[in-house]
Amino acid sequence: MATKKISQLTLATGVTGADVLAIVQGGVTKRATISSFRANVVVTPTKLTANTTVTGYSPGSGDIFRLAVSGSTGVVVRNMGITGIDGETKLLINVGATAPITLNHATGPNLNAQFAVPSGSDYALSPNGGAARIVYDATSQVWRVV
Prior knowledge:
The strands form three sheets. A six-stranded mixed beta sheet has the order 3-5-7-11-12-9, with no helix packed on it. It has a four-stranded mixed beta sheet with strand order 4-6-8-10, with no helix packed on it. The protein has a two-stranded antiparallel ribbon with strand order 1-2. The chain has strands at 20-25, 28-33, 42-43, 53-54, 64-67, 75-77, 89-94, 101-103, 114-116, 123-125, 131-137, 142-145. Helix content is 0%, strand content 34%. The radius of gyration is 19 Å and the shape is elongated.
């Protein structure tokens, strides 16, 4: 195989999240998928069931989550069902019109990927656009509301 300049390589067609790239990191060639480079993927998961407490909430793969509740009574989310990479951020937006979504402040070591709210209290995402940016802290294993 002859060595070519990057400008001489054949152009790729559209890529998907599962396509693999070769990356040289610290002198070692590694594989990475396109999905590991994604940014601002918007997801609208199934509505949360009203008047419930959710443990291990997994809204899907994405960066921005458009959340809503199926009824007029709010929902409490105790923790995320997904951990992140240290420093990874997600944006949670309540796009529903009637019910709040409450992020439960971490209260003990018994759940992974809990929420840590600066005030030490639960954090409510009000209907019609209430939002929170969360950042994963791998040292503490929590999603910090910032």
